[in-house]
Each structure stands twice: as C-alpha cells, then as structure tokens.
Amino acid sequence: MLGIEDHLTRKDRGCLDGHFLVAMPGMEDERFERTVIFVCAHSDNGAMGFIVNRPQPLRFEELMENLDLDGRKQPREGSTRKTGISECARDFPIQLGGPVDAGRGFVLHSDDYMTQSTMPVNDDLCLTATVDILRAIKDGCGPRRGIMLLGYAGWAPGQLENEIFANTWLSCPASDDIVFDPDHIGKYDRVLASMGISPAMLSTETGHA
Predict the structure, then answer these.
(1) Domain 4-68+83-204 sits in CATH 3.40.190.120
(2) Most C-beta atoms within 10 A of its C-beta, which of 41, 118, 125, 161?
(3) What are phi and psi of 133, to 5 degrees?
(4) 38 by DSSP, 3-state: which?
C-alpha cells in the first residue's frame, strides 16, 4: 500500500475522493463501528482517509506540553520565547484518524493556511503533517477551521471497492461543515440524514448512495 503522501500527490484520483464513507451495521471490524470516514485519496493503487467522528481525550494544550516544541522543559538562559497557548487553540479538536500510523499526527484544515508541506485534498480542504502548523495553531495564526487526527485509515488496491460491494460502507459526497462538526456523537446520523437515510433503513441498503 502506498504511503499517505504518495496517495495525495498522485493525479489519477478516483471517484471516491472527497466522499464520506459510513460504516454499515454489519461492520465486522470494531475499530470502524459507526464511523464516518472522509476519503482524502482514492485511485487504482488504493485509498486513504480519516475517521472524523472519534474524539480523543487528549487536549491540544496537553499535546503541546508533551511535544515541548517551545523548549519549556529545558528553557535556555535569557530566552524570551513565547510559551503560552492562544485561547482559541486550547480546545483545538484532536481525534482518532484511524489505525494506520496511529502515533503520527495530521491536521485536516481549511485552505486559508498553506506551507510548502501542505497538501491540498480538494478545492476547500488541505492536509498538513508537520510541527509548523502546530506552532501556528498554538500562536493563534493557524487555519480558520481544522482538526488534528492521530493515524489514518488505508486500503490496498481494490480493497475498498470490494468492501463497498459487500455492503460494508455507504458513500456520499462530503460536507466541510460535517467534517468540522464538533457534535461527534450526532455526526453519523447527520451524514445519513444528508443521504435521506435513517438508521433503521441501513440493513436494506446495497452500498452506494
């Protein structure tokens, strides 16, 4: 399976780019039960995306302290470096993005923040996986909207297509408002409602919306 950067830089994108995947009731893998996944890249070489409705108890402020990007644990003599966290960053959302590379962090965000390491996902969303964006968020100059995701979900060539054919996932075009919706519990039902589906109907659906 290709790495995440390989997926996002390929030009031969598939039909599920920028779509949601909604886990069906028959999902056998407990890691994906009642999940909503935003597909960032899909091609003949596989697919990758992020779970967007699994919050983590870790707070952004705690994460910054653990990473010690400011050198707060070992301050340099005479240093005047700013160590505080902006008010808007204290509750910056951190979520479980998926089981692959779960120790690695990614920020899915609006396109008003851009660096050389930022990778566009679609016309409105970008992905950045370097510490620069964490510093920007901490200082209050990061993207207008964003979520930090730990790990991602990945599929080998043909695997996702086979899972959809087996009625494991429903798919529909993604909405940025739902991606960044802080109501994680209600996000699953909200995506279904956008498709005109109630949970009671899922067992009779055949896969594609």
Answers:
(1) no
(2) 41
(3) -70, -30
(4) strand
